[in-house]
Design brief:
- The protein is mainly α.
- It is built from four helices and two strands.
- A two-stranded antiparallel sheet has the order 1-2.
- The longest helix has about 35 residues.
- It is globular and about 55 Å long.
- It starts with a helix and ends in a 10-residue tail after the last helix.
Length: about 140
């Protein structure tokens, strides 16, 4: 069974968004003035440049696939955060000598604000990209009856 054009566009958007986010995350520390722009708060670290990278990458995905991409953008970033938190919890286990779930909870507590900002940036970027998608004269991603 061959995927529909809307499904293919959604898969393309997800692939391009993930690749763009990786590329921007790799490039950002190499730009003078951007490296070291992280902010420490009582609730954890904030990285405004990373949020801009997330918004831009997910905006490209939204521009390619339209509004159907917004939940995928949030899901992609949530999955990335789950991997990050799992790795942090695993890495801290030998140092803290605490069970994995306790380390995971501590990692989540410390990174909750950054995670929330990242997920909001992904949703906003994808929504703006989808809004720009509407300006292009392309067929809709959801077939109208």
């Amino acid at each position: 069974m061959k995927p529909t054009p809307a499904t293919r566009r959604l898969l393309l958007a997800a692939s391009v968004a993930i690749a763009s986010q990786w590329l921007l995350s790799w490039l950002l520390p190499r730009i003078p003035g951007v490296a070291g722009s992280d902010l420490q708060t009582a609730a954890g670290w904030l990285s405004p440049a990373s949020y801009v990278a997330v918004a831009l990458a997910m905006g490209v995905g939204g521009w390619i696939a339209g509004y159907r991409f917004v939940p995928f953008a949030v899901s992609i970033n949530l999955l990335i955060w789950l991997v990050i938190l799992t790795v942090l919890a695993e890495m801290s286990a030998p140092l803290t000598e605490k069970p994995f779930l306790r380390n995971l909870g501590a990692s989540l507590q410390f990174n909750a604000l950054g995670m929330t900002c990242s997920l909001l940036a992904a949703a906003a970027g994808a929504a703006i990209g989808a809004w720009l998608h509407r300006g292009r004269n392309l067929p809709p991603t959801v077939p109208t009856p």
